[in-house]
Design brief:
The protein is an alpha+beta fold. The chain is 52% helix and 11% strand.
């Protein structure tokens, strides 16, 4: 790696699409640089090649639009009021923002003024590791020591931590999320103190914003340690019910591929009744499907050790995905040995729920009058079929129905 140009070999920097966009927005002589995640992550992984890239330019947004259009590049005015234009070239998406400095801040919002000073723009970013930039030649600009922080696993605010947080309370969650992904202990003392002292500001955040940060935090490599810090600072208590960290640690061992919602359910299950579950779902603005899944994860009876036939019956009743979720939760809560959970998950991965061979029209053809009784008989016969490991065919199901009909008529005659 060239110490003068550490990002010169980055795939996204050498890409024709990137060079085309950069050439377009610098055509009038104003400088532009790549900023944010593409710079940060490529320093750690030289082969990192994201499709979405961020740039900062000294050109005002209207001029950026004009320059892109003049170069024949599709441009979208995605945030002109905030200085942002999006360029689309091939499979890549470039978010181009005019350099800014804050004039006034209001929590989640700020009044900004455009500038041509890259350091002034970097000073308004949240963390040092996110305040780096690079030019077309791969030269790194790092006014706040972000590169050293990145390699040391030190997550640190730009400037004074409390000031950065008061500008935008979402930065509390971003601190913990970035610590979960990039951080190593010990955490920055100033940052933790500021998060603890300003935690009440988390109540001002929208559910969508909280959900976005938690979704990323919970699947990060250092999620448990970051959550431990959130609990210690009182930040978690501002968001959701008390979490079960030990259960999450077990879940990560038996089900390391579990998604963020399964991990959230594992944290909340024991300390979250039905009412709190609904409250959590509403707080995070979950979709209807996500709410239903979280409700099931928090309230369903968890399986105990059993045979393969029991896993198959569970998967048929609730679906393979929910069955896998429940198995993982059971192992995380100590109700199911890890080996049994692994065996059951392997079985379910190959299990295809069979099709119930009987239909309502079959019962009607056999003599049952159309109406609500058809549905009731189907449900009763399906339970009988499941209990016999899905083995009976249509003829056997009809024979069982006739047997039960005869028994019902006999019982009625005795009465």
């Amino acid at each position: 790696m060239d110490p003068e140009r550490p990002l010169a070999g980055a795939p996204w920097l050498k890409a024709a699409e990137s060079r085309r966009v950069l050439a377009a927005i610098t055509a009038e002589g104003a400088p532009a640089r790549f900023v944010g995640g593409c710079v940060r992550d490529t320093l750690l992984d030289p082969e990192h090649d994201p499709a979405d890239l961020d740039l900062a330019t000294a050109e005002p947004p209207e001029q950026v639009l004009a320059l892109l259009e003049r170069a024949g590049i599709r441009a979208l005015p995605t945030g002109l009021a905030h200085g942002t234009v999006t360029a689309l070239v091939g499979e890549r998406r470039f978010e181009i923002t005019t350099l800014r400095r804050d004039v006034e801040t209001f929590g989640r919002h700020a009044r900004v003024r455009f500038t041509d000073d890259f350091t002034e723009d970097a000073a308004r970013r949240d963390l040092t590791i996110n305040a780096m930039s690079c030019d077309l030649e791969g030269r790194l600009f790092d006014p706040f020591g972000g590169r050293e922080d990145l390699f040391r696993g030190r997550i640190r605010f730009v400037g004074r931590a409390r000031e950065r947080i008061r500008e935008d309370y979402l930065r509390i969650l971003r601190f913990f999320r970035f610590y979960a992904r990039y951080g190593r202990p010990p955490p920055d003392a100033e940052a933790l103190t500021a998060c603890a002292e300003e935690r009440a500001g988390l109540r001002r955040l929208s559910g969508e914003r909280i959900r976005q940060e938690l979704e990323r935090l919970l699947v990060a490599p250092g999620a448990v340690e970051a959550l431990r810090l959130m609990i210690a600072t009182g930040c978690w208590a501002e968001l959701l019910p008390s979490p079960d960290l030990s259960a999450l640690e077990r879940l990560l061992l038996v089900c390391p591929d579990g998604d963020w919602l399964l991990r959230l359910a594992c944290l909340l299950r024991d300390g979250c009744g039905h009412g709190r579950a609904e409250e959590a779902a509403l707080r995070l603005r979950l979709s209807r499907r996500e709410r239903e899944r979280l409700r099931d994860l928090l309230s369903a009876e968890l399986p105990r050790p059993g045979a393969a036939r029991e896993w198959a019956q569970l998967a048929y009743r609730v679906g393979p995905e929910r069955a896998r979720d429940r198995l993982c939760l059971a192992a995380a809560k100590g109700l199911l040995p890890a080996a049994a959970c692994a065996e059951a998950r392997a079985f379910l991965a190959a299990f295809a729920p069979p099709r119930f061979p009987l239909r309502g029209r079959d019962l009607v053809a056999a003599g049952l009058a159309p109406g609500p009784e058809v549905g009731r008989w189907l449900r009763r016969l399906e339970r009988w079929w499941v209990e016999r490991d899905f083995a009976p065919d249509k003829a056997q199901l009809l024979a069982e129905w006739r047997r039960l009909q005869e028994r019902s008529r006999g019982a009625a005659a005795e009465d």
